[in-house]
Amino acid sequence: MEYDLRQNVVRFERTFDRGPELLVEAPGRVNLIGGSTDYNEGLVLPVAIDRRTMFLSHRREDERLNVYSTGLSCSATMVTTGDEMAQGWLRYLSGILAELSRRGYRVSGLDLLISGDLPIGAGLGSSAALEVGFLCTLRHLNGLDISDEEMITTCHRVENEFVGMKCGIMDQFVSTRGKEKNAILLDCRDMSYEYIDLDEELLTLVLFDSGVKRELIRSDYNTRRSECFSSTDEIRTERAEVRALRDLTLEDLPWLETFLEPTKFRRCRHIITEIDRVRLAGEALGSKDMTRLGELLRSSHISLRDDFEVSCEELDHLFSVALDQDGVYGARLIGAGFGGNLLTLCQPDRATNVITEVSDSYRGRFGSTPGAITCCTANGVSAGWIE
Ligand code: GLA
User: Fold this and answer.
1) What is the 3-state secondary structure (H, E, C) of the chain?
2) Does 336 contact ligand 1 (Cβ within 6 A)?
3) pTM
4) How far is the CA of 321 from the centre of ligand 1 (A)?
5) CA-proximal residue: ligand 1, atom 8 (nearest)
6) pLDDT number for residue 2
7) Looking at the annotation, which residues are catalytic?
8) CB within 8 A of 41, min separation 6: which ones?
9) Other CB atoms closer than 10 Å to residue 327's CB: what's the count?
10) Cα–Cα distance measured from residue 302 to residue 308, given in angstroms and rounded to the nearest whole number
11) Cβ-based neighbour number of residue 173 at 10 Å
């Protein structure tokens, strides 16, 4: 979907009887590898993508937020003092306002139009883009002295505390710090990171949307997180220095198997092997070894499917058909899992063919066509005044 700025400016004018003064764009993300390692203080390797949520805004004299979302065809009003707790998707906005007020920031009212071409709820980081883009809008309109780092941690806290999705830091980080033609090797323990070149002449990112949107994704995700944390607590009774699963290595696996209950052991095995794969994937990407990178993605999917158990029939079908195609390096489910998208790494000249073949097979099996898009890497959130 091409994003039409002009059309949205007109929509803003019609909705609010004047033009916007600020445009903010916050990108979605694709994590090349590192499924669920972020909240275990491990490594991830995401890229920001050229699908974004857009925020057109204009300050108001009072303390009211008037918002219209084109994607959800929904409008709402609330105060900007942080005293009002909204429901549904508006919780992201009221959570940001409440968190800013808790931190002692005051913000003026604003008219806001939210639009864009980032699919909502498809596992491409749309929640983080909404938080980051909204907070960036408030930062600019009010000249708030908030660093990027504070923006990331504020948005992360809002999602954990106000929305109730106990996610890791990755999505907010990459929507803020993404860089075109680069992946970010991020250490989620201390937020240290390095950019690694991603050569788009060698690699195209194709996303297949399984179309599966489960109501329970949030609670399933939180259950996996609790399983990881309760395993960590158990491990700590034996080795007090273990703060997170991140502190264990492949060599610890035989020992863990001696006392962890089998399901917990498999959850831990996924996290420990996955962190190792992220490290290796960073090296493979750096040395442009796409075949090796693809193999690591494939192992990641298998581990997410069998040990972490966050896949589903539709994703597994897409996975096996994608891997059968010429020019595919590797594939894996991304995001929280239980539905959402399969990332496929392809040779650029094979992408169209791969999309046709995989879509045909999916249609033959499930009777519907999966959404399929190619995407490019992009920069993190940006803001610009409109003349
Ligand atoms: C969701 C969360 C992230 C991360 C991924 C799984 O996208 O928001 O923090 O845990 O799932 O890798």
Assistant:
1) CCCCHHHHHHHHHHHHCCCCCEEEEEEEEEECCCCCCHHHCCEECEEEEEEEEEEEEEECCCCEEEEEECCCCEEEEEECCCCCCCCCCHHHHHHHHHHHHHCCCCCCCEEEEEEECCCCCCCCCHHHHHHHHHHHHHHHHHCCCCCHHHHHHHHHHHHHHHHCCCCCCHHHHHHHHCCCCEEEEEECCCCEEEEEECCCCCCEEEEEECCCCCCCHHHHHHHHHHHHHHHHHHHHHHCCCCCCHHHCCHHHHHHHHHHCCHHHHHHHHHHHHHHHHHHHHHHHHHCCCHHHHHHHHHHHHHHHHHCCCCCCHHHHHHHHHHHCCCCEEEEEECCCCCCCEEEEEECHHHHHHHHHHHHHHHHHHHCCCCEEEEECECCCCEEEECC
2) yes
3) 0.96
4) 25
5) 167
6) 55
7) 171
8) 188, 189, 243, 244, 245, 246, 247
9) 15
10) 9
11) 30
pLDDT of residue 214: 64
Q: Give, using CA atoms, the residue closest to atom 2 of ligand 1.
A: 167
Among 159, 170, 224, 270, the mutation site with the greatest number of ligand 1 atoms within 8 A of its Cβ is: 170
pLDDT at 123: 86
Give pLDDT, residue 216: 59
Residues 41 and 188 sit within 8 Å (Cβ to Cβ): yes
Ligand 1: which atom is nearest the Cα of residue 127?
8
**Could you tell me if the CB of 35 is within 6 A of ligand 1?**
yes
Question: Which two structure tokens, joined as six digits, stand for 202?
Answer: 């060698």
Tell me, in angstroms, the distance from the centre of ligand 1 to residue 373's CA. Answer: 21
**Residue 219, pLDDT score:** 82
Cβ partners under 8 Å of residue 283, min gap 6: none
Give, in order, the Cα–Cα distances in Å from 131 to each of 90, 158, 172, 260, 373. Answer: 10, 8, 8, 38, 24
What token pair was written down for 320? Answer: 């096996």
**Ligand 1 centre from 303 Cα, in Å?**
16
Low-confidence ranges of the chain (pLDDT < 70): 1-3, 214-217
Query: Two tokens at 352?
Result: 């169209």
148-157 helix and 90-102 helix, angle to the nearest 10 degrees: 120
Residue 261: phi, psi to the nearest 5?
A: -60, 145
